[in-house]
Amino acid sequence: MIVIEQIGTELHVAFRYDPAVIDKMRTVPSAHWNPSIRQWVVGAQLATHLRIALRQWEVAWADTAPSAANDGTGSWATNLFAVVGPDRREAVFRALSKVLHPDTATGDTALMQTLLDARNAA
Question: What residue spans define the domains of the chain?
């Protein structure tokens, strides 16, 4: 089991040694190993990204989970925009629109609508 505890503006991630989990932790932006506390540390603003990266394992939040805005319950597009941040939001939207727009060979009306809704809500 992976245990995540929010301490101030950081998430401390503790788990038994598992190379697969370590590989996933390395994909989380700003995640780093802190040898003095023997835990991985991630900025709390990346809670959604962390949840997505660790979704295949059982995760327990110590004390309290992060705020509802980052609890992983939003749509995939809402979570994506939260992870990429406001500076990359439009670029990500444009890139995904090229793939998801219903007028393209790979398009999907429902996915494009979800993307649009998340963009308008952001």
Answer: 2-70, 76-121
Predicted local distance difference test score (pLDDT) of residue 67: 43
Residues 47 and 50: their CA atoms lie apart, in Å, by: 5
Tokens of 89: 């939001």
2-70 CATH fold: MutS, DNA mismatch repair protein, domain I (3.40.1170)
Percentage of the residues of the chain whose pLDDT score is greater than 70? 90
Question: What's the CA gap between 116 and 32, in Å, rounded?
Answer: 33
Q: What confidence tens digit (pLDDT) does each residue in 54-82 have?
A: 999 998 887 654 444 444 557 888 888 88
Q: DSSP alpha helices (H): ranges in the chain?
A: 19-25, 47-53, 76-84, 86-100, 109-121
Neighbours of 4 (CB within 10 A): 23
CB atoms under 10 Å from CB of 5, counted, come to 15
- Predicted pLDDT of residue 66: 46
Could you tell me the CA-to-CA distances from 73 to 15, 22, 55, 67, 90 in Å, in that order? 23, 24, 12, 11, 22
